[in-house]
Design a protein that fits this description.
Layout (H helix, E strand, L loop, with lengths): L2 H4 L6 H19 L2 H16 L20 H14 L11 H16 L4 H15 L4 H8 L5 H6 L2 H4 L15
Protein name: TFIIS central domain-containing protein
GO molecular function: zinc ion binding
Keywords: Metal-binding, Nucleus, Zinc, Zinc-finger
Length: 173
C-alpha cells in the first residue's frame, strides 16, 4: 500500500503534505543512523545467499529482548504510545508487553526490519490511534484480540464498520 493510499481521500492537500513530510522525516531519521544502515545492508546481502527460515512458536514465550536494536526499541515505543493514547479500559493488560509481542510478530513475519515491516508497523500505530474505532484498541488492551493476531490483521479486519474505512487526518489522537 502506498503512502498516499493510507491517507484518506477526505484529507486536504495540506494534511497529506504534512503527513508525508512526517513520514519522510521518520525515514530519514532511521536511515541516518550508521548502525541501522549497516544492519540493513547486512540483511540485504544475507538475503541473496539464502533466506532464513521463519520462526514458528507453539508456546507463548516472553518476547525476545530488544536491547541492541535501537530501531526495534523505537518501533515498540511507538506501539506503546499508541496503546496508551486514550483512557485505559478495566482489565487492561500491560501495554509494554503487548507492544513487544506485536513488534516481535511483525519482526518474525518479515524476517527483520524491512520496508514492509515498517509499513505494517505504521499502519498498526495509525489504527490504534484512530478515534472512530476505539474498540480495536480496547480489544487489544483487554486481550479480546491477541497481539500476535493484531500484527497480522488486514486493514479491513481492523475496521469496526464500513464507515471506518475513510479516515481523515483530524480523526487521529
Amino acid at each position: 500500500m502506498s503512502q498516499l493510499q493510507a491517507i484518506s481521500v477526505n484529507a486536504t492537500e495540506e494534511d497529506k503534505a504534512s503527513i508525508l513530510t512526517k513520514l519522510d522525516q521518520m525515514r530519514a531519521m532511521i536511515t541516518a543512523q550508521p548502525e541501522i544502515a549497516e544492519a540493513r545492508a547486512e540483511r540485504q546481502s544475507s538475503r541473496k545467499v539464502s533466506p532464513p527460515t521463519p520462526i514458528i512458536r507453539q508456546t507463548s514465550s516472553p518476547p525476545r529482548p530488544l536491547e541492541g536494536n535501537e530501531l526495534r526499541v523505537r518501533c515498540s515505543k511507538l506501539l506503546v504510545d499508541a496503546l496508551k493514547c486514550g483512557d485505559m479500559p478495566d482489565g487492561t493488560l500491560d501495554p509494554e508487553d503487548l507492544a513487544a509481542r506485536i513488534e516481535e510478530k511483525l519482526f518474525d513475519l518479515h524476517r527483520g526490519t524491512t520496508d514492509k515491516y515498517m509499513e505494517l508497523l505504521r499502519s498498526r500505530v495509525v489504527n490504534l490511534r484512530y478515534k472512530k474505532n476505539p474498540a480495536l484498541r480496547e480489544n487489544i488492551l483487554t486481550g479480546v484480540v491477541a497481539p500476535e493476531r493484531f500484527a497480522i490483521m488486514t486493514s479491513q479486519e481492523m475496521a469496526s464498520s464500513p464507515g471506518v474505512k475513510h479516515k481523515s487526518a483530524s480523526d487521529y489522537k
